[in-house]
Each structure stands twice: as C-alpha cells, then as structure tokens.
Amino acid sequence: MLKVYDFTGSGNGYKVWLLLSQLGVPFERIERDILKGETRTQEFLKKNPNGRIPTLELADGTFLFESGAIVWYLAEGTEFAPKDRLARAQTLQWMFFEQYSHEPYIAVARFWKHFLDRLTPQQEANLPDIMKKGYAALDVMEKHLATRQFFVDDRYGLADIALYAYTHVADEGGFDLSDYPNLTAWLARVKAQPGHVAIDHKF
Amino acid sequence: MLKVYDFTGSGNGYKVWLLLSQLGVPFERIERDILKGETRTQEFLKKNPNGRIPTLELADGTFLFESGAIVWYLAEGTEFAPKDRLARAQTLQWMFFEQYSHEPYIAVARFWKHFLDRLTPQQEANLPDIMKKGYAALDVMEKHLATRQFFVDDRYGLADIALYAYTHVADEGGFDLSDYPNLTAWLARVKAQPGHVAIDHKF
C-alpha cells in the first residue's frame, strides 16, 4: 500500500491525499510532526534528503518527494491529469506558480500565524512583504478565473488541487478574500467535486 | 518562430534557451529588463499575468510562463525528457526542489549581490538565513550525486538543466563550492554536453 508521510494541517500534504481520496486509491497516512523536527531525523532523511513532508513511499519502497511531483505521478493516466501537451504545460505552469509565487507567501503567513506561538522580530519585519506578495498571487488567480471555471481546459484537475490547498485556508494567514469573487466561486466549485475531503479530515 | 522573453543573466531564462540550443530549435530572444520594470507593464502582463521572465510565446501566439513548465513543454518527446512514469516524477521532484528549496536562496543571494548596487537593511538581515538555506540545498545535491552521474536515470535531462542554471553561478551569490566535489564534477559533466552554451552567451 502507498504510504504518505504528512503533517496535520499541511496544505502540501493535503494535495496528495485529496487526490488519492478522489482517485479512490487506498493509502496509509503517517504523521511526522515538523514542529518537533520529525522530518529532520537521520531516519527520515533517508526517505527524503530534503527533510520535508509530503513524502510518498511506493509499494516497492521507492520514495518520492515534492507535492507537485507526487500528484503528477499519482494522476498520470487518470481524469485528473491534463490530456494534451499544452494542457500538461499549463498545468505545470500553475503548479510552479503555486510553489514559487503563492505558497511561500500564503502558506508561510498561515504557518506563522496559525502554527507558531509568536513571531520572531525578523518574521515580524518580513510579514508586510509576505502579505503583499500573497495578495499579488491571489490577484493573478482572480484575473485568470474571470473567464474560466477551472485553471486549465475548464475542467477540474491537478492545477486546481495544487492551488486550492493553501488558497482555501488563506484566511488563517490573515488574507481577506472578500474582494475576490471569482476566486471564492472557484473555491466552492472545487469543494463540490465528487470525493472531496476537507483539510481537517480526521484519519 | 518561438519567442523567449528573457532578462540577460537570469538562470530561469537560461534554462529555456540552453534547452532550445541543445534541441537545435530556432528561437527569437526578446530582452525585458526586470530592473527597469519591463515585465510589469500592462503590455507584458497580457503575456504573463505574473509579470516575470522567462515567458514563451508559441507560433500561434499562446503564452506559457514558469521556466519548469516551458522546458517540460519543449522537451516532450525528445531525449531530454524522462522516459517513464517514475523518471517523469523524479524529474519534476528535482525541478520543484529547485524552485522551492534552491532558487529562492541561491538565485536570490546572487541577484542581491550581483545585480543590485546595495542591499536594504531588511535584505541584509535576511541574508544569513538565505545563505544557510542555499547551502542546505547544495548539501542535498552533493549527497544525491555521490552515487550518480546525473540527477535522474543517470542521463542528462531536464532536472540537470533546471539545477545547473543557478548552481553553476552560485559563486556570484557568495557560495563557495570547494567542499562540494560531487557537485563540481557534475557541473563539468553538464558543461561538456553536446550543444552546451554559456549563460553569458552573446545573442
């Protein structure tokens, strides 16, 4: 059986088991508490040398890391994977956008405010810039969704899963989505997909 | 003909035209000076709503952004693309690693030190953390290369192109690679590939 090393509340981990749930693929979820350094142990670094969740263990013991790579692997050949060359590239475009221009701001603000007891002075100093860049990412999404139901080919797929994970909990990072009607409507469409499970699902 | 919107010296842009050069595909390179805000104009935001280079324009006027998505599109069906499902996922694993755990530190330190006249106090305050995380990424690469010639399937491909772009100029960000023998040997192997062009190639 597939094993998913995860940390409760992680949007990156959520992408993996949201997809697995919608695929109907059974998996074992194994908690590793990043706040206690459980992904930086010698044992865990043998699974993922970068010391992060999510990490996927295949049935043969092969490990894969990076949420984007994991969901790409799992979705190949299914309805969630893009069908043609351009759609594959556009899907990756939004997945890389998420990891480079969205997650480092929206997920980081959420992590600081939702998971930490208090911020360091350096974090406090960086927070305005983090919020500004997070809103810039939301602006890009809002504009793209003005004429579309989903991110690529107007059908639900990997790009939506990747972007939904942290956008739908952006409020926990202090982001106000009330001026983002297209984004809010898209969040509702994603949530209404068959087999959807919530990020606070109890395993 | 393909058009590549680029900024001289960008490692992300370099990935695209290094691959195009090695594929022997003709392209037009169009400079957009990010230091002068030329990727944030209304005209450019119609090409890439995220306002960044590289941006690829296909012959039919379709735009693609994010270096990882662009090289994936260009490499499909060629010797530079991974051949099977696991290799595709492992290639994306290293490409996402590059954009999340490597580029934001190694490329950012280089940008600050190599392209800016002086750092802001906030940049100065963040620099030690940036350098530490950059070295952590180099450590992961060094370990992976201890038993391999290239990042995936022991053949040169997209993962190598993605990671080479900023690693080979890491010294311009103040990173010292003298304690990274595996990395240094891999850099030489990448540079020796047929059709290799340097990042300071004059167009």
Automatic annotation (TrEMBL), chains A, B:
Domain GST N-terminal: 1-82
Pfam family, one: GST_N
GST C-terminal domain span: 84-203
Family, similarity comment: Belongs to the GST superfamily.
Protein name (database record): Glutathione S-transferase family protein
